[in-house]
Structures are given as C-alpha cells and as structure tokens.
Amino acid sequence: MSFDKLLEQAEEKLLSWWEGVGAMLPNIALAIVVLFIFTVTSGWVEKGFRRLLRRSIKSIEILNLLLALIKVLYLVLGIFIALDLVGLKGTVASLLAGAGIIGLAIGFAFQDMAENLIAGIFLGIRKPFKVGHIIKCGDIFGTVKNINLRNTIVESFFGQWLIVPNKTLFRNTVTNYYMTAERQMEVEVGISYADDPRKAAKVIHEAINKLDFVINKDLTTIFADGFADSSVILKAWFWFKYPGEPGYLDVRHEAICTIKEVLEENDILIPFPIRTLDFNAKGGQTLSQTELLTRASRQEDIDSAHQTEKETRSQPSAQENGGE
C-alpha cells in the first residue's frame, strides 16, 4: 500500500509539473523569440552606434572597444528580459548581484589596468594630442608615435621609445607644442659692467629680428634680468615656428651665434669670470704691483723666521735624549 501511495504522489507531482510547463509554453516561446530578436538586431545596433560615434572618436581601438561593450550590454539586456518572461525573476536578481560582486573583485584586482584603460578612452574622446604631435609631460618630452588603450608611445629626441601609462598623461599637465605650431625661445647672455645694457639690448633686438625664422617680430623682447659675478645678464625672447624647419637646435645655435657676432661688432664685451682683490673692509683701497711684491716678501720672511724658531726649540730636546 505504501508503494502505491508513493507512486500516486509521484504521478501527481509529474502531472503538476507538466501542467506548469504547458502553462509556461507561450512564455518560453516568447522568451526564445525575444532572444532571437536581440541576437539579430545586435548587429544593427552596433552599426548604428558606429556611425554615431565615428564622428567624435577617431581612435579605432577605442571605437571597437565601446562598440563591443554596447553589443554585450544589449545582449545581456535581452537575456534578462527573456528570464523575466519565464518567471525567473529571482534568477535575474541573483545574476545581477553576482555580476556586481565579480565586477567589484575584478576592479580591485586590476585597478591599475582599469585606470589606464579608462584614461585611454577619455584621451581618445578628448584628443589632447594625436600621433605626430610633440608633447611634454614632466620628464617626458618627445613625439607621439602610437596611442593605445593602456599606454602611449613617445619617442624622445635621443631616439628612445618611452611607453607612458595613459593615467600619467590623463592626471598631469601636458604641453602640446603642435597645437599652436609656435614656440618661444629664450637665449641668455652676459655683458661687461663697463658696457651699456640699453645699447646691447637694442643691437641684439635688431639682429634677432633680421633672422628669417623669427616670427611675430613685434613680440621679440630683450631685457636685463639681473647682476652676475662678472656681467649684467640679458635675456632674448623671440618666437619661431615649431615644429618646423629649421629645427629647435638649429634655431638656438643660429641665435647664439648671431648675438655673439653683433656684440663683437659693436665692441660690447662678453666677459670671462673676473676676481677683484679688495684689501680694505669698506672697499676702495687698491695696491700697486710693487706693494703686493713687498708684502709677499715680508710674509716669506715671517714664515722663515717661524720655521727657524721651531728648529731651535727642537734641538735641546734632541741633546737631552742623547745624554740619557
């Protein structure tokens, strides 16, 4: 009797399941149709977003990454809708919670990678620099060769390739020398205290503005910057096209040579380091060459007398040691 009862209960359970499946067949069919529609239309969605984003995002890597994320999110949305149609709301909530926990764990584990990736995406959208631009960020100075999602490759002017994490360029100030295509050069020179700084500034200003590569000639400035040990410091500021021809080093070389030549032509001295001996605490006292030699001779006599006195003092000690 117990076996018949168990069999009867099993039949009732199977029957209830079958009835439940029969009742759910329309929803299951609808869920399959929803999944099919989302799968087919995901390609259309990707193409639509590609046309939309292509206008603002020039980087192929960033564009493909965003399109892949959009497509995955679209398909996940279709799966969640299908699960909800078949009455698996609890399963949907569990999947969402699990995905959140897994995403949080992955974020902590790959924090540095994720930060570089996000920074690369924003750099691709904002476009503060492009391939071929000359940039400077801290100690990084060179030409941009490639921009990836995780790093940017910069070639220094010494020929080395610098692999720079994107977060470094995103967090810090970046100087882009290509955006304005102009750069200011500063050349420093010292002139003798015996020469007139105003005259030196005038002749340097005229000579600099005669150079072919100098632009914005009304902005060329020559000014006295301070007093050095042996000279008055003048600084020359002028503008030239950068990057371009001639290059930075050629421009600086030509400017320095021009300044030296024009100062020599106008009898303005670029002095060597000078040392002045002053034997008076308040200044103003000078000594002739004869006086200097006399004082040096006296100092030698004093030193010789001190040496003789030391030798005289040491002789009795030597005799006493011999007597013992």
Q: Which percent range describes the beta-strand content?
A: 15-25%
> What count of domains describes the coordinates?
3
Please state the structural category: alpha+beta
Percent helix among the residues?
55-70%
Tell me the name of the CATH class of the largest domain. Answer: Mainly Alpha
Catalogue the unreliable spans.
318-324
String of helices and strands: HHHHEEEEHEEHEEEHH
| Quaternary | single chain
Number of DSSP strand runs:
9
CATH architecture of the largest domain: Orthogonal Bundle
CATH topology of the largest domain: Helix Hairpins
Structural overview:
The termini are far apart. The chain is an alpha+beta fold and 324 residues long. The protein has helices at 2-53, 60-85, 89-109, 111-126, 166-171, 197-209, 248-265, 289-323; strands at 134-137, 140-147, 151-156, 161-165, 175-176, 182-191, 214-215, 221-227, 232-241. It has three domains: 14-109, Helix Hairpins; 129-176, SH3 type barrels, CATH 2.30.30.60; 182-265, Alpha-Beta Plaits. It contains eight helices and nine strands. The strands form two sheets. The protein has a five-stranded antiparallel β-sheet. Strands 6, 7, 8 and 9 form a four-stranded antiparallel β-sheet that branches. The longest helix is centred in the first third of the chain and has 52 residues, at 2-53. The protein is elongated and about 140 Å long. A hairpin with a 3-residue loop joins strand 2 (140-147) and strand 3 (151-156).
